[in-house]
Amino acid sequence: MFVALAAQARGLRVALIEPRADLPNNLAISGGLLPVAGSALQRAAGVSDSPEAWLADLRQFAPGMVNEQIAEAVALALPAACDFLQAQCAAPLRFLPDMVAPGHGQRRFHSVQPASGLALHQWLRQAVRSAPGISWLEASAEVERSGVGFELSSPQGLFADLRADQLVLAGGGFGANTAMVAQYIPGMGGALHNGSATNDGSTIALGLRWGAQLWGMDGYQGQGHTNPGGVTRLGMGIPSLGGILVNREGRRFVAEDIGPSALAPQVLAQSGGIALELFDQAIEDQLGNHSAYQQARQAGCVMSAQTLPELAALAGIDPAVLQHTLDEVAACAQGQADRLGRRSFARVLGAPWRASWVTGALSHTQGGLLTDAHGAVLHESGQRLPGVFSAGGCAAGLSGRGADGYLPGNGLAQAFGLGWRVAQALC
Ligand SMILES: Cc1cc2nc3c(=O)[nH]c(=O)nc-3n(C[C@H](O)[C@H](O)[C@H](O)COP(=O)(O)OP(=O)(O)OC[C@H]3O[C@@H](n4cnc5c(N)ncnc54)[C@H](O)[C@@H]3O)c2cc1C
Known about the structure:
With 427 residues, this protein is an alpha+beta fold. It has helices spanning 2-9, 26-29, 40-44, 51-61, 71-88, 117-129, 178-184, 202-209, 238-241, 260-268, 281-284, 291-298, 308-315, 319-333, 410-425; strands spanning 14-17, 34-35, 94-95, 109-111, 134-137, 142-146, 149-153, 162-164, 167-169, 214-215, 220-226, 244-246, 274-280, 303-305, 353-365, 368-369, 376-378, 384-390. It binds flavin-adenine dinucleotide.
């Protein structure tokens, strides 16, 4: 949808084919948190940042795992993409001054307010459907390459045959395709998937049919703050604000600030595949703008207690062990080194308490069609596949092998940043 908007703003005519408009896609499910270093909104908030600083954070977070074909181009494109949405399209984008995230050296997240992927999705869909240069086709399509262009037809006869000079594959990743997950990410085969059912790998398959090259297929965004069942999640902000995770025995097992993605397999490795995320009311008071947390709270997934023994009883954890864990954490917050290697604890936690059971889930896949810096899909030979572009979950992501290299916000950063590059490259 973003590529369509940016392309039509350049005077191009676009047909947007959406076969699953009835289902929420990953954007609609997401937190809608878009990292942009150097936007006009960020500058106006007095934050000094740059695409180079974001790139340095990415390389430090995922050493040796960065998709250098696109990383710099995406970093440089994001401010322009964000400014286009806000200034030219009047999108209700805001800079989120209170949003901190593991791996990011600066506050650089943007979203609608309160932050919500659903609201961003609704705004985009409305903007696309009312744009004069975009034909919105709610149908699936069969696509054939023909000479220098593409022939598109509707198996259900829902639109007349179309001819396009260029094709942008933007159908999302393969998190909902159990066979592909088992093939490329065997460690997460059968794991909870809290992403969209529309991410069935169908547009990756289309590129593959034409000999496209794949990159990073074992990379994924895990989500270690997912409530069991997968309907709600706490969001990624709690560890940065001082929260911790304990297992069923009441003991910490991980440096909680490694990021929500790398956390997922660590949580799954605990007894029962679950952990208790433990924080306090002072942290909750800072999450008013975080729609994911608010939904979890409203769904009854967050426990409240005035005292630690009360909380331990609610969670079924030995209160003495929990008290010992919190004594250790308080010492770390006051400067003692953490045995698990966590660097910052933000503050000493205190009553009233909050806690929520979480598990690890596969949110979305990072591997996909390898593109160059303009989003042009590359053939196995290394040459461009003529006329074929890609962005979002269908295209190779920014970084990562397994869950570890996913820097928070990489998903939308690539979708919007590479999407901007694609829209500028189309002719
Ligand atoms: C729980 C969760 C939380 C997340 N939170 C964040 C976050 O806060 N920040 C962040 O940066 N990222 C986040 N992400 C990742 C982010 O949502 C994705 O990276 C992003 O939505 C990818 O965009 P996309 O357009 O490729 O995919 P989608 O948003 O899934 O859209 C793909 C679209 O393609 C359509 N489609 C499917 N098959 C075809 C086909 N064959 N032909 C045509 N169309 C097709 C689908 O119906 C769908 O509408 C999160 C993901 C999840 C699951």
